[in-house]
Amino acid sequence: MSCAVPERRLRSDKAAPLSDGVYLMAAAAFQHLRREKPVTHQVLHYGKKSDTQLPESGDKTSQRQAFQLAFNTIKYQELLEYIMMDSSFLTSQHLPSESLPLAMVMLFDFQERKFTLRPTKDLTELSQEVRALEHSLHKWKIKLAASLARYRIKRNLQSVSLFLPDPVRAKQQRMKLLPCYAWVNTLKSSVEEVCAELQRDGLCEVKSVSEVAESTFCRDHLCPDTLVFSQSTISRLEQSDLTATHRLNIQERSVCVAVSVLRPLLYDCGDVMVAGCFSAMTAAHVAVAAAARCGRALVSAADHTAAQLTELHELLALMDVKNLRVVSEAFLALDEWDSAAQRLKVIVVLPRCSTSALSDPVSTIHSEHGDWDLLTHLCGSSVSQSKLQTLTSQQARLLAHSLTFPKVQTVVYCTRSIYPEENEQLVKRVLEKTHTHSKLLPFRVNGPIFPDDSLSGDAEDSKFFRLEASQFTNGCFVARLSRQADPTKVETVQDVLARAAAKGLLGGILPEQANAGTKSKNKKSSVPSATGGPELLIGLDGDAEAGPRLPQSDQDEDKDEEETEGNKGGKGKKKKKKGRKRKVKKNSKQSSSQLEPKTLKKKPAKKNAPTSKKSKGKARKIPRLTLSLISSAKASIPVSSVTQQTEPDRKPPPRPTAPKTPSKQRQSPDRGEGTAAQRVLTPADFVLPPISSSTSSSLSSSSLSRPPSSARSSRRALRTTASSSVTLPSLRKLGQ
Predict the structure, then answer these.
(1) pLDDT in tens, 77-109
(2) Where are the alpha helices (DSSP H) in 118-264?
(3) Mean confidence (pLDDT) of the chain
(4) Which of 367, 361, 360, 370 lies closest to 391, judged by CA?
């Protein structure tokens, strides 16, 4: 197929006359959307806007042509009104005010066709009102053309387009050069297969969009599934088998960019929600991207009309898309408890915006069922603040509601606007007002991820992606919001576990922990067990409560710490210490009750001497070792025998009986343990020799090197001995 045929067809399409029905629909749209001036500045008097409604009947092509004609008439409204008054067309034809909108749209089309009549042989719909008004314009064409010329001379306009404001004229010029973008349906074919078929049809692939011309195409560097064509190839592309079978789908580029940002953020078997104002083609595009990760696309039925849902289902059937689900609830009515939101991980927000970054807003508003009232504002150099405020309030509601789902990890926000009020300012304002749960990571702005690494970055200026409008593309704004910790703060393991429990990832097995800074008096711990659930804890007072069970060695260490604190504390702590000692004596009755002399009173224990950091923990675990009174007629037991009692593999020697002590004998107040240790005691004194430092160190190292059960039994024995011991001066007097 040669390129000359579609080129001639394109020219014939541009010169194709509009039908009478298009004129009537355009007149209704102009009457509804026209700019209304104050009464003192009105040149022409139209009917009331409330008497007309936007046209909804007719096929899509006729409706788009009617709105395009109405939009162009609004842009040149002041010029057309001057021509009507300067040429005296209204006063000569005696047109009623109801026919004035039809005369305005026909006058614009008439001067676009160089004041020539339409060919009527191809027209099927005929309207007497339209035909009569067309003949009147043709009869008055000389005066109409003269009025136009006088206006251009008065304003020094080299062309009629110079009448428009600079931003509007720039868009109109870009629209004539803008290439066509089409994405590949990967459910039916791959990008390589489509490119090969295009090359077999005579199209050549080039490297960049600046090289795209007649009979050429290239790949989009931002969107890996999108191809770029020139305007001269549109007709040829529309008649090809690729578009007929929906393997190739023509769409505005800003939507393709949003889907390209979304693609690497999708989760396996996760859902993605499309919220806002979008077309059926956009929903299908998102569903195709989600199908690559075995996910689903969700669309709210309450946010669309019945005709739009019918169009959506028909398109999905033609494109073989089966992973799109229509949710009955409106998006703003959904919450985290709805069944549709249980697998929701990503939300794409495509709100109604000013479309100020689009060269041809009519096509986008028509395909996406947007707000036709925007055409009135887009005819001027800027959108009014009242309209921007209305749009931003709706956009903020959609974006803020998207951030309320705890299982959603990423939100993609996309507009086709050049105003910061709709873009970065709105995103920052919503993030500041969003209150995130303390156990969930907050949303933060991250730069989009593109195949081209030069366009993806983490710098401050690259967090928001903005595509400027040019002769090659329309403009758009994209923001990616993801859950992320504050980079200036270090996240602890407890924060990770708490956030996982808040999300329900632990299945509720992690209970809420008590405040770590407070310590209970009875040493009942609230630390979770190894399995994560509560266990039955037996306290020191014998009561049972729900809580985790500590290891036995940790319980012994806690008892030692309580005894040390008891020596430092007041009377209340001493009473609690005595109670705990009674419990210890009861549990170790076999080892301590028979060794304790009944006639001796226990002295308060001394404070432990300060130790170094290395041996501080060990010194507190093992109390000070003193000597027990042993009554026997034989020689005293060597110190090695005492040390051997702590070994579990040997039986302890028989316990000697203590001698009877006179009841009136007093204990010596002398506490000179150093003097008693320097003496060499004889068997007649019934006193053990002093324990050397090497023996005590070997004792501690031997007990620590044993298994946990042996170490625990050794500590119990030593603690019991310490509780029933007397000092060396007492032993000396008893021996005398």
Answers:
(1) 999 999 999 999 988 888 888 889 999 999 999
(2) 128-139, 141-155, 166-177, 191-200, 234-238, 241-244, 253-262
(3) 73
(4) 370
